[in-house]
Design a protein that fits this description.
By secondary structure, the chain is α/β, with parallel strands linked by helices. The protein has a single domain, classed as Response regulator (Rossmann fold, 3-Layer(aba) Sandwich). The protein has five helices and five strands; from the N terminus they run βαβαβαβαβα. Helix 2 runs parallel beside helix 3. The mean pLDDT is 93.
């Protein structure tokens, strides 16, 4: 059975690239451009993993992550924050969220799907 991934990113080019890389790796991919819709989609589709940008138009990715962690429907879904914010304090904000990981931008297109897959239990 194919793994499901949800991409939450307001940048269309980033979403398309990540989607293509994950689909080639065998994932079924859902994509949205803001956190509120992403949270609703996570509740509906129950993906195996969520790939989330940090800077979204309606809230920070870490805020969305905290909301997802408080919901029994989504609390166990791994979240990978994919962001250009790579300073230590940004990394700490993402790792403070349980069951989450961090991939810096620009992503490595050769290893992205494998990196994402490592967070799925």
């Amino acid at each position: 059975m194919r793994k499901k991934a949800l991409i939450i990113d307001d940048n269309e080019k980033n979403r398309m690239l990540e989607k293509d890389l994950l689909e080639v790796a065998g994932f079924e991919v859902f994509e949205v451009e803001d956190a509120v819709i992403g949270i609703a989609m996570a509740r509906k589709e129950k993906p195996d993993i969520i790939i989330m940008d940090m800077r979204l138009p309606d809230m920070l990715g870490t805020e969305a992550g905290k909301i997802l962690r408080q919901d029994k429907e989504t609390c166990d879904i791994p979240i990978v924050f994919v962001t250009a914010f790579v300073r230590p304090e940004h990394r700490e904000a993402t790792t403070a969220i349980p069951n989450s990981g961090f991939i810096g931008k620009p992503i490595n297109t050769r290893t992205f799907a494998k990196e994402v897959s490592q967070f799925i239990k």
